[in-house]
What we know:
This protein is α+β, with helices and mostly antiparallel strands. It is 25% helix and 43% strand. It has a single domain (2-129), classed as START domain (Alpha-D-Glucose-1,6-Bisphosphate, Chain A, domain 4), CATH 3.30.530. The longest helix is centred in the last third of the chain and has 20 residues, at 106-125.
Amino acid sequence: MNLESSKVTVSKSAEYLFNALLDIKNFEKLMPENIAKFEVIDDNCFMFALSGMPEIKLVKKESHPNSKVVLGAASSKLPFTLTANIGEISENESSVKLDFEGEFNAMMAMMIKGPISKFIETLATNMNKL
């Protein structure tokens, strides 16, 4: 299952956004209002839960300076990645698009497609809070 957020323009440089996304503590600022839990586990890992959803643990998987940050599920039960693709528009403006890729059975995919789509759209929209 592949889902994409809208491309969002942020009044920050690509370098600033990249560094902000590398600091996983900043993901708390991006979370939707219905967040029930957010906990930083270490410099590369955090856990969160939205109301009515199970806890999800995300780990930094890879990064490409000023252009991409990839987070992935810490559990192999629900394998997925969340990629922030950063594009430089100008010295003080950049774009961000989030890509979610996961391998789920048809039933699971049908159940989570709506909430995940809304979740990544919220993360993208909140990029201006960084």
